[in-house]
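Q: Structure tokens for this one, please.
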Amino acid sequence: MSQPAAPAQLALGQFKVKIGPPEAMNAPPGAAPLSRRSLDKQYEGGLQGQALGEMLAAGQPQAGEAAYTALESFSGTLDGRAGSFALAHLGLMSGERQDLRIAIVPGSGLGELAGISGELRLRIEGGVHHYELSYRLP
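A: Here is the predicted structure, written as tokens:
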């Protein structure tokens, strides 16, 4: 008989992010431009630590039509447990509609965060980034 899934836990807090300048990526002549940017985040609250990553983008964000994908690697503590894990982002915007998914990468948890799974939601209020991480540990 299999064990029931661990109940979801919730970590709340804020983060500061430094986004590097866009670097053009190779694209065929006449094709939609692609860009790359570095990410450096400092998490506070339930997550305490640093994440570094890379973001890739395409489209026309100034016109409200674009997409981005990113990977970031977090190291620090989650509700007092030391370790690390990676987050995968997929963001799409079209007109007034925005769709953002940020998931913990399966198999990326190390240390006391080995086996972690879950999703992160964010909101920006007054220029401040807030997160809500819903997660499970075995």
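A few notes: The two ends are 16 Å apart (CA to CA). The chain has a mean pLDDT of 94.
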